[in-house]
Amino acid sequence: MKKLNILFVNLLAFLLFFIGGSIVTVASTQNAGVGYSVQKISPEGAQVSEASSYYDLLVTPGETRTIQARIQNSEAEEISVHSDIFTTYTNANGEISYTSQPEKYDSSLKFKVSDFSTIVASDIDATIAPNSSEVVTVEIKIPNNIPDGVYLGSWYFLKDGQDETTSSSEGISINNMYSYAMAIKLTVNKEIEAPNMNLLNITTGLNNYRKVINANLQNDQAAVLSNLTVSAEVMKRGEYEVLYSNEISGLIMAPNSNYSFPVFYNDEPMEAGRYTMNVKATTTDPKWAEKTWEWTEDFTITENEVREYSSKAINDPEVEESNWTWLIILLIVILIILLLILLFVLYRRKKKKEEEQDR
Q1: Pair 205, 215: CB distance under 8 Å
Q2: Average pLDDT over every residue of 328-339
Q3: pLDDT at 295 over 60
Q4: Where's the WxL Interacting Protein host binding domain (predicted)?
Q5: What whole-number distance in Å separates Cα of residue 163 and Cα of residue 7?
Q6: pLDDT, tens digit (0-9, with 9 covering 90-100), for 147-182
Q7: Residue burial 113-138, b: 16+ Cβ < 10 Å; e: rest
Q8: For position 163, what pLDDT does the model report?
Q9: What DSSP character marks residue 108?
Q10: What is the rounded radius of gyration, in angstroms, for the C-alpha atoms of the chain?
């Protein structure tokens, strides 16, 4: 089993900011012995906060802005650093991800930072001489038809050649990759007036190989939605006894993104049937007045889902065969026995008739 650990230098923890909503970003100001570092160069023009460690820009539709960063090479050899522009999303932990891209973005996301931000061609793979630095540049062209609100992305840096692996005694390969990600927050004119959330659907699946029921929640607005608490309860349809529940506080959602809120089975087996889920979400984000959403949704778990996810789950009890399966097997055995009895009776009758005819 392979594990990829992406280690972010200097600030190994995410930094939390409260400027027009909570923004989590990873940045670096010094070299920490890995051969290179990346520093933000404060941009010219309107900014929401000039003291911010990330790019916090106030922009208007149709405007073009330039941002820059300095890559410092402290090694005695030339290095090459590749950079990308990412559009953020909400990951499975209920956090904003700045360091990767999802397989699919939310359907409400019409304007991606990565679509209208371009790294200068020569800077995509920047070459930095020994013990020197290079300034790299991104040009941001704000679309003319973009609505007001916040659009969030990141400028991601990774030094080439970081492919050395070490193996532990358990045989696990660890690939250490040192990277940097600096958030890009673009506020077009102003923040939105009020947040909104939707419950898109309810599905079953696995979360870290644990069986779950997921409530897929959507933040369909151009705004960072923070200070979010979500709770959910699952019951048999038409009944009131709570079978499974979960509550998580301190969640944060990227603009125009969705998040699968998990309700875990723990050590209980997954069972097919018809269920109901009650979901409640509350945000105390200081940008707006406190807001609560509530949903009640019916859903069905099939036998196929039970077999698929139970077979792949770990640290869960083995799921017993369905009662219907055993009933079918029992009926087949009974039918076979009855058939054998019938054949035996018919044979005895035939034998008795032949004996009577012989007399």
Answers
A1: no
A2: 89
A3: yes
A4: 170-309
A5: 13
A6: 999 999 999 999 998 865 554 444 455 556 789 999
A7: bbebbebeeebeebebeeeeebebeb
A8: 67
A9: T
A10: 30
